[in-house]
Amino acid sequence: MATFYIVATPIGNLKDISLRALETLKEVDLILCEDTRVTKKLLDHYQINTLILSYYQHSKLKKIEYILQLLKEGKNLALVSDAGTPGISDPGNKLVQEVIKSLSDQVEIVPIPGPSAVTAAASISGFSMDKFLFLGFPPTKKKRKKFFEEIINSKYPVILYESPYRILKTLNELKIVNDKLSVVVCRELTKKFETIYRGTINQIIEKVLEDKIGDKIKGEFVIILKSKQ
User: Fold this and answer.
1) Is 211 helix (H, G, I), strand (E, B) or coil?
2) Contact at 8 Å (CB) between 131 and 158?
3) Mind listing the pLDDT tens digit of every residue in the chain (229 residues)?
4) Does domain 2-112 match CATH 1.10.730.10?
5) CATH top-level class for 117-226?
6) Structural contact between residues 162 and 138, judged by C-beta atoms closer than 8 angstroms
7) Is 42 helix (H, G, I), strand (E, B) or coil?
8) Sign of the alpha-carbon dihedral angle for 41, 46, 49, 52
9) Alpha-carbon gap, residue 161 to 220, rounded angstroms
10) Which secondary-structure segment (H or E) carries 209?
């Protein structure tokens, strides 16, 4: 029976990968990844020579069929994302669904746990995280106002992802809905320029603006919101 490994990789610092993940990536027949250039940097760092193949959100049906065929033939495959745990706000979950649907009795699906921006941010938030909501990226266009109105009324902390291109837009829209939120924003977690912002939404916006490089904001962001209700 083939094994399909879902392997967590570092979200920034290459030292954060587990020994089990390294062993798995060395031993499988093929590694499926979002961007071969990103994954190759990790593999080169650890002198891993396993073949790699790109798989991303818009991969064509032929590629998915090829992957399924490899598993049918008994090949052991690993799935990684560019950073963190595959399937968490990541197209990898669609491939896992397809494997379950098509080959549920022919493939063992094994998680190799590790880094995740969600849990990293939650661990340093300072909020009670016994229960929280993770909602991934906010809608980019439609229903944003409704989305933000719903999450600020949550009795649990809410964790969001956001890109550098929309971080200020998102913070300002949250401010319009409720400027009394307690907020933690994590930028570039585990990387050289990791920054943790804490405070009210107004304070966070000021801090993000202060750290602009020229007219650009850089880095990937995790936002944690807690309503003062």
Assistant:
1) coil
2) no
3) 999 999 999 999 999 999 999 999 999 999 999 999 999 999 999 999 999 999 876 667 788 899 999 999 999 999 999 999 998 988 888 899 999 999 988 999 999 999 999 999 999 999 999 999 999 999 988 889 899 998 888 999 999 999 999 999 999 999 999 888 899 999 999 999 999 999 999 999 999 999 887 788 989 999 999 986 5
4) no
5) alpha beta
6) yes
7) helix
8) negative
9) 8
10) helix 201-210
**Which residue intervals of the chain bear CATH 3.40.1010.10?**
2-112
CA distance 44 to 120: 25
Amino acid at 132: F
What does the chain come to in residues? 229
24, two tokens: 């798995």
- CATH 3.30.950.10 in the chain, residues? 117-226
- The owner of tokens 């807690």 is 226
